[in-house]
Each structure stands twice: as C-alpha cells, then as structure tokens.
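Entry type: protein chain
Record version: 2
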Amino acid sequence: MSNSVKIVMIEDDHGHARLIEKNIRRANISNDIVHFDSGEAGLAYLLGDGGQQNGSILILLDLNLPDMSGVDILAKVKSDEVLRRAPVVVLTTTDDRAEIQHCYDLGCNVYITKPVDYEAFAQAIRQLGLFLSVMQAPIISAES
C-alpha cells in the first residue's frame, strides 16, 4: 500500500486498537494511522476535512461502538459522493450472517470477524497487514 494512504481506524476498544496498529506495523506498513474511539468523532473527521481532502484513505471500522452503530457509519460513508470509493474493512466480533450480508450490501469491502482468542486475533491482524501491503486504494477527491 502506498505510504500516501491514510488509515482511519474507528475502534472503541483501546487494547484492540493497539493490537491492530502493532500488527499492521509488523507487516512493515508505515502509513499514518488516525485512531478514533467513538463513531461520532470518526464520522465527523471523515465527513469533514479528514475525508474530504485529496488523497487515499482506508477505513478500519468496528461495528460495535458505544455511541453509534458502525453499520450507520458504513452507510454514511458509502452514500457520500466523495468518500464512497474509500475501502472499508469491517473488523468486529459480530459473526451474524445477516449482519455480514447487510455490510456487504452497503458497500463494505472486507469483513473480518475478530477472534476472541488473543493469539488468533493477533494472527488475523498480521494477515490483514499483509493484505494491506499489496492492495491499491483509490484517490479520494472532492473534484472526482
């Protein structure tokens, strides 16, 4: 992944956020990671200056947030004229088939269920890091 791609992580669990960042770094990804521990703050950033600037972003999104549903954030991102191209990786403990289908219907690009076991979770994030190291992200621009 190009270093110009900014990673926006919306994750309320600080332990999970640290684990995600640590294992992304282990995959030699040095991109900026902007972390928000609430849906409101993350969405405000994405819909404000953070998501509306020219460049590429990748969104790592937890669905189970204390202040709002990650599904609502996904719907708002994918219905936004500028942000809709931004890749969204859902990282959540929810493995409900209907919820997974709904997220893909809304435009989620990747859905990963967080394993409950720490080592399995760390391994899943390392694999995500490897995936991120080879993926291409589109340019997000208000002029597109």
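Comment: Residues 15 and 21 are 10 Å apart (CA to CA).
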